[in-house]
Amino acid sequence: MAKASPRPSKTLLTPTDHTLVLIDHQSQMAFAVRSIDVGSLRTNAALLSKAAVGFGVSTIVTTVAEKSFSGPLFPEIIDTFPAGKVYDRTTMNAWEDESVVGRINEIGKDRLVFAGLWTSVCIVGPVLSAIEQGFETYVVTDACGDVSDEAHERAVTRMVQAGARPMTSLQYMLELQRDWARGETYGLTTGIARELAGGYGIGIQYAKSMFGAQEGGH
User: Fold this and answer.
1) Cα distance between residue 172 and residue 189, in whole Å
2) Distance (Å, rounded) from C-alpha 99 to C-alpha 9?
3) Catalytic, out of 101, 122, 139, 188
4) SS3 144
5) What whole-number distance in Å separates Cα of residue 161 and Cα of residue 137?
6) Is there a cis peptide before residue 95, judged by omega within 30 degrees of 0?
7) Distance CA 137, CA 144 (A)
8) How confident is the model over 92-125, as pLDDT tens digits?
9) For labelling alongside 139, which of 31, 112, 172, 174 has CA 20 to 30 A away?
């Protein structure tokens, strides 16, 4: 008989056990996105990026044909990683770029979290490639987008069938926090949520303002 114990699943992410790979959150790539409102996409990408920086997650930011076609990164990502290196590629599949793969090997973590544009091309390619080479992969689906709902959903299904684990941007941040008693990141998590987490963020603001409530007694 199984016996319960107060230990988290090994499949839950921690700040130090993975690398976040942000792919092609660029203006030209966003123009054709129809699977998610572009404003929501930008907000989710910002939440994801700020959470990664705040929790000290190793992160790779990559673009495709930035100067010649696809344009700059979302302002939210530029602002969050102002001094970070951006790996510009010609390959649609970032996994076929030696610089990107070299950086993944340099960081040396077997667990990878992906988000970017478009889901069916620039996310499917590296996710399937990483899985085939023995990496454990997660996809932040609401920080991805595609030219139609069909394209996005079929891409997510294909990656899940291959073994990828889907999640959302808010789920990602709360999974890194996971315990409101972790006071060193409590303010970070609730601050990002107040700014970017929609109704949940407004709820945090309301509870604090109206009756001084805080999660976990903080």
Assistant:
1) 11
2) 33
3) 122
4) coil
5) 12
6) no
7) 15
8) 999 999 999 999 999 999 999 999 999 999 999 9
9) 31
